[in-house]
Amino acid sequence: MNHQQPLSEKHQPPPYPGPPMSAPDASMHALSPMSNIAVPAPSGPTAPAYDARRILHIYRDGITSRHMTITDMDKSHPLYQVDQNSGSLFSSKPHMTISQPSPSPNTPATTIGTATFHNWSRTIDLEFHGVPVSFEPEGDFTTRYTFRSPAFGMLLRWECHGRWGADLVRVNPQKEWIARFDASLFSLSKTGKIHVVNGGITGAALDEIV
Length: 210
Description:
The chain is mainly beta. Helix content is about 5%, strand content about 35%. The chain is built from 2 helices and 12 strands. It has helices at about 25-30, 205-210; strands spanning about 55-60, 65-70, 80-85, 95-100, 110-115, 125-130, 130-135, 145-150, 155-160, 165-170, 175-185, 190-195. Strands 1-2-3-4-5-6-7-8-9-10-11-12 form a 12-stranded antiparallel barrel. The radius of gyration is 17 Å and the shape is globular. About 20% of the residues are buried.
């Protein structure tokens, strides 16, 4: 059993930047080529709480394993699986594949996205449901990347915070955050957690976040 030591105030990861992202409006859906985003809109007192976070958990098979499983909040129901070809950029492409587990052992998993890295460039070639997306660094010495999201229909930024994790935020003056990855640095079996600000985000939009 792994016991995580409490982090001192000096080594705490940075706070979530800005207010939670508000519910998407109709213009977002008009820009999106995907039809299965399924983000509910407020409708009276029974409307969902958009500041409620959905937490996904990322586990790996072993310290040297290149296979990971992403579960729902119950930590047992698998939602996604991640496979890397190898630790080398010279391996076959794509270098990383994200898929949804098959409900039957006789049925192959459904690929939802891939990532291909480059030897001489920090740009990462992504693909979401067959749609190519360029993951571009904002500068030579920055840990911030931007990309045009097919599902959200807007420009998003991925901001890394060293070994602690990263934030996925909307590129606007408010920097509304959509999701955050927190690394589990002291665990041998767990890679980290993904906090999704809007519990109603499903379908292609949740696929992109993962």
